[in-house]
Structure formats: structure tokens, C-alpha cells
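Morning run. Coffee first, then this:
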Amino acid sequence: MASQVRLIMLYLGWALLWSAVLLLVLWPTGFSTRLLLTDALLTNLLLAVGGYAVGTGLRFYQPSIRQGAFLLGWSLGLAGISTTVFYWLANALFEQEVTYLTFVDNTLAVRVAFNWLMLLLMLLLTWLWFYTRELQEAEKRKAATEKLAREAELYNLRQQLQPHFLFNSLNSISALAVSRPEQARNMVQQLSDFLRGTLRKDNNQLVPLTEELKQLQLYLDIEKVRFGHRLQVEVEATEESQSLKLPALLLQPVVENAIKFGLYDTVGETAIKVNATTADGYLTITTQNPYDPATSQPRKGTGFGLDSIQRRLYLLYARQDLLRTSQQDHQFTTTIKIPQHYEKMPDNR
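And here it is:
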């Protein structure tokens, strides 16, 4: 309702402005001020009514740019109607002013042209305003839809990662339940703590590296029950990097990938190294694991885990260069760079 009142006041202000302009244009004709003021106000009030009708119509129907002829015809029709109404009212109000009515008759063509140009201007301005607003709303809807799709994909990526680890952990617990029940109970508690940490975080959440490393340690404690002394993990983080932030639960699938390539096809000990540093506005995390080229073949692909991490980083940062892998001297290296100045990335802690 308030917006409707403001719109009406806008059209009335438009009418008063152009009434003043028309009054100055008609002043040299020598007619009385009363006649000229009535002429100007009546002409422009009728135009304001026509403009308001145009605005109301465009609110419900907005022709495309290619339908310009429709706008021209609409404005011309309204110009004819407003001129006809003015002519009828002028003859009714000033039937004794023969000279003035003759002047009105002689200027009908000019009045139609003036009314048409004014209505066309109002129509174009109104159409442009509605068209711009529709574009803005369409952009907002598109952005909201893309955000929902991105969040759904991020959620789906995490859900695909969890079952693999969970099934392996449950199988290990089942195997330990008879032979080593105390260790099985500890593993259940560790698994519970790990899952609790994953469930209370969302995909867009930024967490300090120290918190991410604590969650990673819960994962490693569970994996060490499965692999025993074979799994050796060395985690190093510089003091400057520990307070920097990264997307929650980013490192677990990276280390899981390292364990997969480093331990699954070997029988000896495997040392995995995780190193975090900071430079040039980035938190850089490298993960190294040995692999046997005769059994493990990382050159054929990095597996779903790293593919999902790369996709997640792209969805969050719109960049494809934040995850890199390399192989040298039987060492598989994964490098992740997290920008530390990214305004769109919310901190939902």
C-alpha cells in the first residue's frame, strides 16, 4: 500500500512539473492565467492518469524488447484517448471562450504529438524500471538456486565419503569384539567421537587448522587400531599456520587417500607425512605417502577422495588450481592451498 501511494505521488509530481513547463510554453499566446493554468494542469493530469495506467499494466505484462511496436501503439492509443478527453472537458468548461476553443482546435495535432511523446517517455521509463527489477530478481533467484545446488553437491560429496570409512571401522570393531573386547570398546568410543565431530559441522564452515588436526587425529586413532604399527603418521604445522582457517573436514579424505595408496597393497610399515605452512596469503598443506608402483597406480587417478576434495574446493572458491598431486621417487604428494582472504566464504562457527 505504501509503495502504491508513493507511485501515485510520483505521477502527481511529474504532472505538476510538466504543467509548469507547459504553462511557460503557452504564456505567449496571451490567454488569461486561469485558462492557461487550467489547460496545463488538465493536460498533464490526464497524462499522469494515462502514465499510471501504463505502470499498472506493465506490472502484470512486460513486453520484450522485440515487441517495441506494442509500446508505440499503446502510447499512441493513450495519447488519443487523453487528447479526446481533454477536448471534451475544455469544451464543457470553457464553452463561452470561443477564441480559446478555436486555439484548442488548431493545436489538436500538436497536443496529440505532445501527449504521445510524454506517454511514450513514461511508458519507456516504467518498462525499463520493471525490466531492470525483473533482471535483478532473476539474478537473485539464480544465485539462490546455485547456492542450494552447490550446498547439496557438497553435502552429497561428504555423504559418499563417510560410508567407506564407517564400514571399515565397523568391520574392525566386529573382529576385535571377540579377541580384544577392551580395544573394541575403545574403538567404538573413538568412532563415536569422530562421527560427532563430523555431524556438527557443515560443508561451508571454516575452522582453525588446530581444530581440523584434532579431528584428523581421531580418524588416525581409529585407523591405527586397524593397521597397528604399520601406520606411522607425522603431522607438522608451523606456529603461524595453526590459527589459519580451512573448510571443515577437508584433511580426513586426503589422509585416507594416502593410507589407501600407502598401506592397502603393502605388508610393511608406511610413513605418511602431513605438513602445514603459510605463505603469500595461503595455508598450504602437503601430504606425502610412499607407494609401490607395481601394485598401486596413482597415475591412473587420485581416487574419489581427492576428486571430491577438488570439486569441493572449486564449489567454495571457484578455482581449479588449489589441489595438486605429483609422484616422484615412489612418493605420492598431495598439495592443497587454502586462500585466507576470501569474502564469500562464511565462517559459521
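Residues 298-302, 343-349 have pLDDT under 50 and may be disordered. Good start to the day.
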